[in-house]
Protein 1
Amino acid sequence: MLSSPIRKADLTKMYEAAISFVRQEVHNANVSGLVLGLSGGLDSSVALEVAVKAVGSSHVLGLVMPETGLTPDADVADALEWARRQRIATRYFELTSLLQPFLRMLPEDRLCQGNLKARLRMALLYYFSNLENRLVVGTGDRSEILLGYFTKYGDGGADMLPLGRFYKTELKVLAPELGVPPSICAKPSSPRLWRDQTAEGELGISYEVADRILVLLEDEGLPPAVVKEKLGLSKEVDSVALRVAVSRHKREMPHICPEI
């Protein structure tokens, strides 16, 4: 048993459940296998391990999609080495050549351009999903999902989210037990959508603190005032609660106008 550091949960059982979930999704959809993006980061590395355990390495394809001048060489090296160790096939696509035609026509905006990059990556994943009869494995975790820290129809647009019950803090505990290399486990989380971007820097809070707040707000259903008292935090609780509230639309299907 591998215990969660932030709640009463058996990470080993959750990991086994994730494998069974992926295997069942593949069976239900009657597809040939899975495809996922490999960033050289924690989440995609754990998601790959789960995918391989679920359906076997011969049925998993990994896409490595760096951007010249932005994606660190170490990320690419980590992604390719982990894929090699998992014995899966990979395809490499440099994103800049796809991105530039859009940027020449569009107004300059860092956030919009970042979201465009995430959507281009997902477009590539779905191309191979269609081409080879695969399902797309999303790599988002519960922390990112609840905080809305993903691009709608970008990294949030997948066929399944096997890590969607794991908080980031829990994946940091689980990953070393699965053999994920220290170079990946110790890496600061970042979508790599612009230079020097880090998830915690953009969120303005560490995952360790955010996850403790989320457990009380979402898992235990406590009101913000009680969470503030229990944790001795105020601004942080307000920030997390606001992010959960305003990103709710990102976790839902498009709303349909009701009948008159």
Protein 2
Amino acid sequence: MLRNALPAQLANALSLLVTAAGNTAANRRYTFGIRGRPGAGRHQARGLLAFGAGLLLTAAALAGLHAADPRPGRGLEVMVLVGASLLATITRFGLYRNWVFRGGCHRSSRFRNSGSYACPGQPGSDKKGSQP
């Protein structure tokens, strides 16, 4: 929708920025099971850096397309952005899993089947780092 009024790079950047904070918050809560305020600011700051990585990938794909064809059709732009966005999503998730939410209180694969959380040192945690 933004592309009708803005150049491709600006429309791409704004659409990604609009979704970045919500995406980080949703991943924090639903994917990684982190609730509460502790670490939220750090997670959002790191999430913005992960957003930057995604923006870099999609912007590079658009730049490459426009270098190859200075006036590509909107359909081709969309196809290139869908492919780049898939790669950006995989990259962002890797960053979320291994850096943004690392070390936080989250559902760990070790505890996933028991429904417990890996929250060492948190109130209600036992010495093994799980809580009911």
Protein 3
Amino acid sequence: MDNTILKIEDAKKGYGTKIVLNGINLNINQGEIFGIIGPSGSGKTTFLKTIIGFVSPDEGDILFRDDHLLELGKEVQFRSVFKHPKDIKKLFGFSSQLPSFYTKLTVKENLDYMGSLYGLSKDARNTNIETLLKIMELSDSRDTLAKNLSGGMQRRLDIACALVHDPNILILDEPTSDLDPVLSRHIWELLNKINKSGKTIILASHHLSDMESFCTRIGILYEGKLAHVGSIKNMINKLSKSHEIHIETFPGNYDRIMEKVNNKLIIDKENRGHTLVIHTKKPEDVLLDILKNLHELNEILMDVKIARLTLDDVFSAITKKK
């Protein structure tokens, strides 16, 4: 069965003479964490607002899967988010860069009010609130005014407000902006927990190292187009000509090691004085051969690491090509 939950079809959006989205085509899969990255002003926020139906594209459409529709001969039906706003309210949870909660309400009061906006019964609100307080680690602060929460706790409350109606898809715009590395990491871990509960997550962020660790797939938005879409591993394999194996040994006769190691998978070898660098597309396979040769040459392995491209490297490489 097709796992697609959301389809972006040839979406185009401009403001005056500036084209922000220029023919975006993308399928989002059920249960994935899909990340959008791009330079400042590249249209990430516009893209997210278009997905939820808040911004209408000049051309194209956003289609969501409706498992409750039946049509002879078709297993999956898709409908436009712009033609079915009531269904969209239930499907999406959205957390923007700016807080959506009320600072003079307590944590629990905020969640209760947000739940009422979605038409949840009192029993449903209470059940969802207790679940979210536990998941978002806000139980001890349920009666605290939102304005008195720390920055990290306010971010957790904002995400909880977006989840109170139990949406299938959670959309987040810069969920860890303005947070220190420790708090940022904590938010990512909570998002990972939410994803494992069955939620599909779509988010935009400029924290590339975190995106690399947690996202299933990445889309790079550049000059109005998705310059590349895929897993980090696939992007790296596509862009990288080789990986580097950095080796330090004792006594470190690297010229002799270079003569001995002749694996056909090796693209190049460099003696950098204190380090031997091996270039290859398959570092794991080559490394086994290197270790065998080091033993035969009575070289003691002091340190070894495989240097791979990071998401930051991928982003720089793709945007420089354009």
Protein 4
Amino acid sequence: MKPKINIKRVYEDPANADGFRILVDRLWPRGLNKGAVRMDLWAKDIAPSTRLRKWFHQDPGNWKKFREHYWSELDQSGPLADLAKEMTKHKIITLFYAASDEEHNHALVLREYLEKKLS
């Protein structure tokens, strides 16, 4: 079964329509208590590498190159296969992230990657 994949900032209130909630950040979101975040899985191993994350944050103008590098990392990710298997058990998945830029963040890239791989 191919799930519907939503994206949401971790600072937004959870909703029943979120389905299976996966935090996709390598670092814990600032200002949030771990007990206050409703999540089903923390998939920090599929987030961009620390090196790639820092490189992108220095210059968000590198969006296109960031996407290419992150896809390459995902292609080589062992934990991604386990995540994809888990995702097929659910009708709705919400990937949530802490970045403030809603148009240029790794969760968007990850969703695009997963939708292609799961189809």
